[in-house]
User: Fold this.
Amino acid sequence: MRVLFDTNIFLDLLMDRAPFAEAAVELFSRVEGGTISGYVCSTSITTIYYIASKTIGTVRAQEEVKKLLNLFEVAPVNRAVLEAALAANFVDFEDAVIYEAACHVGAEAIVTRNQKYFRKSKISVYSSAELVNIMR
Assistant:
């Protein structure tokens, strides 16, 4: 299953945000084990690094981003993705970019904690806990 992970899921794991981190850990394990083909939006990488560097320091943030890049495929953000995101009429532009990047790579699902912002999605959208339950 091809799944694009929203920025907040990476931060849940990295910052050990309870109660969300536990489900994120299980999903990342499934990516590592090959049951899920995991994708991260290229714009998420910079956001993850920025927030992580403020909380865990730049050295650890770099290490974590390197791990992320080794484990996940990167969904590119190019002109076509950005133009499609502008036309998508999502409430939040960043979420529209994530959605369009997911479409671009043929993702079958998006995992996020902001499901309400993906109401217009034609791709299935799950919370991390929901996707964990589906995968079991």
Q: What stands out?
A: Residues 42-56 form the longest helix (15 residues). The chain has seven helices and five strands. The first strand starts at residue 2 and ends at 5. The CA atoms of residues 79 and 85 lie 10 Å apart.
